[in-house]
Amino acid sequence: MIGKKMEKALNEQVNAEMYSAYLYLSMESYFKSLNLNGFANWMRVQTQEEMVHAMKIYDFIISRGGRVLLKTIEGPQTKWDSPLAAFENLSRHEQKVTSLINNLVDLAIEEKDHATNSFLQWFVNEQVEEESSADELVKQLKLMENAPGGMFMLDRELSQRVFTPPASQGEA
Ligand code: FEO
What we know:
Elements: H1 4-33, H2 37-63, H3 83-110, H4 114-143, H5 148-158
Helix pairs in contact: 1-2, 1-3, 2-5, 3-4
The structure holds MU-OXO-diiron (FEO).
């Protein structure tokens, strides 16, 4: 059975992951409005991944005998000054999510909740990947600032990203 403090903190993370999905869906819409459909595709896949993160925590709370209580999801930003500005926002956001995950691990240790600590290690590793792919794209976009042709090549590359659904809930 999960403790009340941990249950509440994990519920907040469900909301944070859903907010991430909402933010990236908003970015998808922004890229669509610029006709950068590859960038939009990348954001759609990112959105789907965030929903997998949210549902993974949702299922975990329930599997530990807890209760999921959904709350309002904050409205995301809807426009950015440039594709670079959107990816810089994404990169900053992922850093923030990493600190939220780290706080959850700290709490699990404090509460001596080994099952939750073990569950959260998947997210610790996932955040390394999330931050690194965001950083890579920020760097590529910075290099392209004075070479608009590169933007179309990157757009084509990002159109290749495909969402891979988790094999089963709990194994995302
Ligand atoms: Fe769910 Fe992008 O971290």
